[in-house]
Design brief:
alpha+beta, Cyclophilin, 2 domains, eight-stranded mixed β-sheet, 14% helix
């Protein structure tokens, strides 16, 4: 068991999400930074879609009741094991009775605790992910974890040996040091004038404190619509950038509504979803239009990095 001593601000069980249920009004949920989750699972010899703990802004504290192999990826939460500092993006063995503490995020918004064998929870609609807004999935169909929860995890033999490895630093830099978010034109990009498109792609926006896993509300120069007619409600995609009447864009994220009627000026490219997942309130966001071919090339490049060759001995 993994016992929750303190859950932090918002800690949930997440895999890569539940898909093919949008027609039932269920958005995917899943890890907000799927790349960090995948790399963490790679470090502990799990499949990419294995469930992990996602911690937001302030991490939690946990006691291991069995020996385990773990890795912590994503935002730097200053983790410690029995009050000794632990490296991020690195696999390590923890022993029964040891306590892991994760603090406030020093960089980014979310970190992931990946455990060999994953977090053993019942899958709902083929996924272990917690849909926070509805309470679907996760631990006992509940939303965030609470103090005293005990999560089933796999035990590794006491005599098991493991050679610690870590993610290459250049790969982490590639993921999180880019200053702009790539977008492709949205289905209603023609609703906006050339000047509005210029404003959207050349001026900075700040992430609002009202942002969450449903969407990131942005604050900045207002984007005016060139067409005033209303839209018939239609399906929404992950990463769509809506522009409501106030002209302040909203990036729809992992728990987005599946339908809506605001025009979509753009859509975040799949390769940059991980960067959106690490945005926190008051972070600056800039957008850059790319072609669909460029978006595909960037995603393929990212997928090629998800191999054992991305790891080096520690």
């Amino acid at each position: 068991m993994l016992k929750v001593i303190s859950p932090g601000f918002l800690t949930t069980v997440q895999d890569l999400g539940r898909f093919r249920f949008a027609h039932l009004g269920v958005s995917p949920a899943g890890a907000a930074d799927g790349f960090a989750s995948r790399l963490g699972n790679l470090l502990v010899n799990n499949d990419a879609n294995t469930s992990a703990l996602e911690m937001t802004l302030i991490g939690g504290s946990f006691e291991f009741e069995s020996n385990s192999l773990i890795a912590i990826t994503g935002a730097d939460c200053g983790p410690t094991l029995d009050d000794e500092a632990l490296p991020m993006w690195t696999s390590m063995v923890v022993r029964a009775g040891q306590t892991l503490k994760c603090g406030a995020m020093k960089t980014g918004a979310r970190c992931y605790l990946c455990v060999h064998g994953g977090i053993n929870v019942e899958k709902i609609m083929a996924s272990a992910s917690t849909h926070v807004q509805t309470g679907i999935g996760g631990w006992q169909g509940r939303r965030p974890l609470k103090k005293g929860d005990a999560l089933p995890i796999a035990e590794i033999p006491r005599e098991a040996k493991h050679h610690s490895c870590t993610v290459r630093k250049d790969l982490i830099n590639y993921l999180y040091e880019k200053s702009t978010i790539g977008v492709t034109p949205g289905p209603q990009s023609d609703f906006f004038s050339r000047e509005s498109l210029r404003i959207f792609s050349s001026t900075p926006y700040l992430v609002s404190e009202s942002s969450n896993r449903v969407g990131l509300r942005l604050k900045g120069e207002s984007i005016a619509r060139g067409k005033s007619e209303e839209l018939i409600t239609e399906g929404l995609s992950l990463g769509a950038v809506q522009v409501p009447p106030d002209g302040q864009p909203i990036i729809l994220f992992v728990e987005h509504p599946t339908t809506g009627g605001y025009p979509k000026i753009a859509n975040v490219i799949s390769a940059d979803f991980c960067r959106v997942g690490q945005l926190k309130p008051r972070d600056e966001v800039r957008f850059q239009f790319v072609s669909f071919d460029q978006a595909t090339e960037l995603l393929l490049r990212q997928h090629t990095l998800l191999t054992r060759e991305s790891l080096v001995p520690r």
